[in-house]
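Figure 2 data, in text form.
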Amino acid sequence: MPTITVASDTSPINLGETIVLTIKISNTNGPVAGFYVQSNGPGTFSIVDSPGTQLLGMGVAHTAPRAGVDGFTTFQVGWTAPAHEGGVDFNVWGLSANNDGTPQGDGAGSAFLSVAYGCGVGTTYYTDDDQDGYASPIGYTVACSQPMFFTTVMGDCNDSDATIHPAAVEVCNGVDDNCNGLIDEGLAYLTRIARTTTATATAASPVRSRRISGSAGELQRARRQLQHLGGRGSHRYVRPRLVLPLRVGVHPRSVRARAPATRAM
């Protein structure tokens, strides 16, 4: 994969000023290279590197593969800032090629540049897709004022869920809600063992236990439920039942528990 860079010859950029973008593509896959550059809308592209480049669609591209010098192929593109302040993003796609007329062995890459104009160097804002006020380090833009879906505050560990961010309250849900690398930390736990004793012809049923966790309010509700079942610290007993031996071939549900018949002696 080739190394691709894009840089402006001017900083900061004034309103209405024309700058030159220099695009360099390493000759990693062969002696020639080509490119295409496009912006997210503001400003106007112009041709400053001719012959060899052309306006194409919303951007600028090469007219033919260009040979490299000292391991890099270089292109230049003109861009003029609008008359009102803001920011612009440039996306560059490049191809390093072996010039054999086929795509075999060629390599592609990309580069990104964001700059402000009319307000000095501007401010860097990071992507906040879920708009919870916290960003993840997956993308950025430079602008004069904060655009929608961007913020200056970093630290979001899940930028697709607005309930998860560094200022969130940790709840008992098996998720790192506050992005500190821990799960359900600092929460109180309530453990309750409920014993059920059943008199049968063989043995008592096993002890059953349940672990309850949650917030203070959730734990209080759980305590009231447990007290209703049998009182704090007490056991709940089930009325004994009689278990009769079954005859071979008779389904258990068809047998009724009744006292054995008696005969006169």
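Caption note: Residues 196-213, 231-265 have pLDDT under 50 and may be disordered.
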